[in-house]
Amino acid sequence: MMRAAVIVFPGSNCDRDLAVALRAAGADVTMVWHKNSDLPENIDLVGVPGGFSFGDYLRCGAIAANSPICRSLKAHAERGGYVMGICNGFQVLSETGLLPGVLLRNAGLKYICKTVGLRVETSASAFTQGYNAGDVVDIPIAHHDGNYFADAETRKMLQSEERIAFRYTANPNGSLDDIAGILSPNRRVLGMMPHPERAADSGHGGTDGQALFRALATNLTVA
Amino acid sequence: MKARVEVMLRNGVLDPQGEAVRHALGALGFDGVHGVRQGKVIELDLADGTSEADVHQMCERLLANTVIESYQIEIS
After folding, report:
1. Could you say which of A4, A93, A103, B13 would form a disulfide bridge with B9 (CB–CB 3.0 to 4.6 Å)?
2. Distances in Å between the alpha carbon of B47 and those of B5, B13, B41?
3. Among A66, A149, A153, A158, which would you mutate to test the B interface (most chain B Cβ atoms within 10 Å of its Cβ)?
4. ipTM exceeding 0.85, yes/no
5. Is the pLDDT of residue A223 over 70?
6. Contact across the interface for B67 and A150, Cβ inside 8 Å
């Protein structure tokens, strides 16, 4: 069984949704408070949930990225562990430096909460293996700061290494190159602004996110 | 001692908030505002003997995200 930890910061509000989606896919999930300096042992996946950690003070995710648990999170990633950051979790991962770039204020300055189309750009990761490259899935977004920015050189590298996991089919927030989610060089760290955990149950009105959690559970259960 | 840190978005990084302020100034009748960039000022009250290098580290590690922001330190 995949063993997952979901980090909880003050202001996280998608932590339980993420845990529910992971459990539904068959994972054993432990919630971990940000002040803990250690993750539980033998964790396969760390989930960094959405929300407004520390009230988005200073910059979204900046203070959370310096929480005690984030040292262990970085060590987990550097050991080759899996990490997924959704929405505020993506902002936290970019602030830790585990993923390149930054999420800026939406170009239209508005908080956007709606379901958008995402094109799966690569199926070559434990997160996206349940999709085919080119698939378009419907996943909700809910953010004020989701406007992906990285310099041209970084974006060229992401493109050539096929590390762009998802692109918006109709760019809602000004993200450069329509980027909605990216992978680390070893493809084991995913950051994405859209919320697959909000499209993981028929009660949600959509289930396009389920394949992500199921693929993870299948991939990380082998050992 | 005190330090004043000014954090600004780097040139070339879109500043939608600054743009919104520019539009609002135009709506108030202030013509000729060609650009607005919005940043932040952080005032630090520091123990005597804190070095400028320490403040530099604070900026690098937390106060600014140097991917998109530049900073200036003023010690007084």
Report:
1. B13
2. 16, 35, 19
3. A149
4. yes
5. no
6. yes
Q: Which domains does chain B have, with CATH numbers?
A: 2-75 (3.30.1280.10)
Q: Which residues of A touch B68 (CB under 8 A)?
A: 102, 104, 149
Across the interface, do A66 and B20 touch by the CB < 8 Å criterion? Answer: no
Confidence of residue A222 (pLDDT cuts 50, 70, 90): low
Phi/psi of residue A133, nearest 5 degrees: -55, 135
Residue-wise pLDDT tens digits, A195-218: 999 999 999 999 999 999 999 999
CATH number at residue A92: 3.40.50.880
Q: How far apart are CA A179 and CA A176, in angstroms?
A: 6
Helix (H, G, I), strand (E, B) or coil at A148: strand
**A102 vs B17, B62, B67: nearest CB:** B67
H-helix segments, chain A: 15-24, 68-78, 88-96, 152-160, 210-219
A197 labelled catalytic: yes
Active site residue A41: no
Kind plus residue range of the DSSP H or E element containing B55: helix B52-58
In which domain, by residue range, is A36 found? 3-219
Are B65 and A174 an interchain contact pair (Cβ–Cβ within 8 Å)?
A: no
Q: What is the dihedral of CA B9, B10, B11, B16, to 10 degrees?
A: -30
Q: Which residues of A touch B67 (CB under 8 A)?
A: 100-102, 149-151
A54: CB partners within 8 A, 6+ apart? A9, A10, A11, A63, A64
